Amino acid sequence: MRKVIIFALVFLFLGGLTFFFLSYEEKYYKLSDTAPPEYVKYLKENNLDVKVEKDGSLWLNEKDKADYVVCCS
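The structure corresponding to this sequence follows.
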């Protein structure tokens, strides 16, 4: 009985850990409506996580917000 309880607790722990990592999503906020190639290149040279959407908008990773303020303002 004790082994079953320990197995169930380990299974629940691993399941919760897996759910946490799979549900973690990077958060981006919109930096501009357009993404000039020179600007994207400059941001990537400063190791900022940016992405360009299909509509041409430029998005910056929320974790890089402070770095963006330091390097690019």
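The beta strands are 28-32, 50-52, 58-61.
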